[in-house]
Amino acid sequence: MGRDTIADIITSIRNADMDRKVTVRIASTNITENIVKILLREGFIENVRKHQESNKYFLVLTLRHRRNRKGAYRTILNLKRISRPGLRIYSNYQRIPRILGGMGIVILSTSRGIMTDREARLERIGGEILCYIWVLPGMKEQKWIHEGLITESLPNGMFRVRLDNENMILGYVSGKIRRSFIRILPGDRVKIEVSRYDSTKGRIIYRIRNKDSN
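User: That's the sequence. What structure does it adopt?
Assistant: Structure tokens below.
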């Protein structure tokens, strides 16, 4: 049985994060480059550059390190390999797991390439579940609250939201809004919570009534 390239890069990143290293070097292949692009886009790593050495290419990842209020280092990045060469795990788009209510991501290999669970749901396409990635629960993460307008309703409780600053992002409902069966429709104004590390999506936390906006 050959090497599990994905497991190797997950282990390398996890060990470097635990050892407080600023950078980590991994082999550059098509699949690792696609996974790293997602890590960078989703804000799990700070930067990436390609490096050549003895006719071999490597990716050098700059990790994000954060400190809590007391200044002590805490590992926050969690990566878990799911599908393996000896046991492939597949899912259709309706059964893809949600990590921490949508705060983590699932990376899948599909017929249209490597993508996140949110992208797979939007495309309505399933695939092989490669890995889970999430931030350690209990770590206080800085977030911003924006107001915006629902422009389009998407499958699986997702929405397109135009913020007051004209940025377009994806919004999802969870928590109190989902439990209270509050209906969100195109044309509604909402408050949405956005992570500073990923400004492309956010959690809808409040539907603004007409009298609230007056």
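Helices lie at 5-18, 30-41, 117-123, 176-179, 210-213.
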